Amino acid sequence: MKICVMSVAGMLAAAFAVTGARAAETVIGGGPAESCYLAAETTSRPSESIPICTFALMSALSDEDRAATYINRGILKLAKMDATGSLSDFDKGLAMRASMAEGYVDRGASLIMMQRFQEAVDDINKGIAMKAKKLQVAYYDRGMANEGLGNLQAAYEDYKQAQTIDPDFEQPAEELKRFKVVVKPD
Question: What is the pLDDT of residue 8?
């Protein structure tokens, strides 16, 4: 089976579009760290929420909550299209707690924005292997990275997998409209 892309113009725009379906790292117990988590979970008002996360990071937090708060602030920076800032936060969070699968998927999204597609695939693969909470987002992001690498069949399969996991997730369905599957004759 050979996969052809009908239009690649949309891919570059899609590579920079950030889905609001990121999986934030849970922080409970009230206070600014939990507020940061809730903002990251919905990616609501990132400009207003990033300072709350920064304030939380200046307060007394467990190592686990501090790592999660870096990931959550990174998600908000990602929503603002701040690839460098989000990558820095994801790196800090993962350095403190390397077991956060979502951090690798989200780090991959930052790398996609920076057009560092192979690194993005590597990080997203790690998040998938670690059983990220929102696997549909991981497969969608990996599809974008694979498409950026020119791996069209892998991109197609990733978009299909994202759609299979969550049929209501609109972005993979939109991406799949650009593909045309051609079966090569024997």
Answer: 42
